[in-house]
Amino acid sequence: MSDDTVVVWDESLLAYDMGDHPLDPVRVELTVALARELGILDRPGVRMVKPEPADDALLTRVHHPAYLAAVRAAPRDPLFAGYGLGTSDNPVFDGMHESSALIAGATVAAAEAVWRGDARRAVNVAGGLHHAMPARASGFCVYNDPAVAIARLLDLGAERIAYVDVDVHHGDGVQQIFWDDPRVLTVSLHETPLALFPGTGFPDETGGPGAQGSAVNMPLPPGVDDTGWQRAFHAIVPSVLRAFRPQVLVSQCGADGHRLDPLADLNLTVDGQRATYRALRALADELCDGRWVATGGGGYALVEVVPRAWSHLLAVATGDPVDPATLTPLAWRELAAARRPGQDVPLRMTDDADPSYEPWQPTGEPNAVDRAIAATRRTVFPLLGLDPHDPRD
């Protein structure tokens, strides 16, 4: 297997543009520009790959043919309604099918490169559209690129795929698509569905008949900071992945858990997000011979957060992490200021936060985070042969 990292990128990925909408492609544009200015994309072993659109045969591994027809037709019909399209969350836009298929094709290209051994790791920062359902757009997502890529991996012969979603919103689309498939473990850490879209992701969602334990959900209370997030991540994710023994790790790395994000209520920092990416890579190295497919996802602090978070992701995937104290390059700051006048442009790659944490223990007076951890462990750990009360599991 090559030790290279593939970064799937082309400016045409910016065509997934819903107009005056929170999911603005400028966040992806500024991410790639920052990573380039920091030298991340010029590292030895980094290969830039131009994506091709996913064809109907790939897309219909996940989505219904009638839904594809609707996505194609909607931009030509000013009165179109249905399939979750034409709403404020999912407005119809020109080239909707083509741009959505290109994002799916980019994540598929990343997955194929990793599975075939052309690269050990691969990243598509434009991907991560995890809410799309088989026959319905949802949560800013038209086609579910992580699910299409996972389906492609199964077709190529993968027998155990772990999907870990660290977006602030529950990874509901991927979970539903593979609900009955014991070959795919879906793990999602997210703000509680009692407070946030999409209203799913409770601990008792554990997989369908014959696949019990294949869905793992870790809902967290509003206001959780890096310390609580890291405590929850490390109390759940390594244990369930080790029990499952995946051959490849697919992750959705939404940056919308950050304290500045306007659409959610967690208090993470880019330092904590960087720590999560490092943990994901370490788990891929430990369990999957390094095979890691990473995508972007949500993130609506377009200048202040997403470009820094995902540049850290790209750095972790391509080699050494970027020192948090690193200054953002002047050329990037000028670009960011020009693209989004009036927004604060960060001067450094850090929020000056310490993401260290105390490991979970089943003792003492539990706080809200520990109660959430205990609920998830009690519900799903026995289904995976793990002891919910043993911190070594």
From TrEMBL:
Q: Which UniProt keywords apply?
A: Acetoin catabolism, Hydrolase
- Family indicated by similarity: Belongs to the histone deacetylase family.
Entries under Pfam families matching the protein:
Hist_deacetyl
Q: Which domain of life is it from?
A: Bacteria
- Gene3D superfamilies, A to Z: Histone deacetylase domain (3.40.800.20)
Q: In which pathway does it act?
A: Ketone degradation; acetoin degradation
Ranges where the Histone deacetylase domain occurs: 21-315
Which portions of the sequence form the region Disordered?
342-367
Tell me which species this is from: Micromonospora parastrephiae
Q: Which SUPFAM superfamilies match?
A: Arginase/deacetylase (SSF52768)
Record protein name field: Acetoin utilization protein AcuC
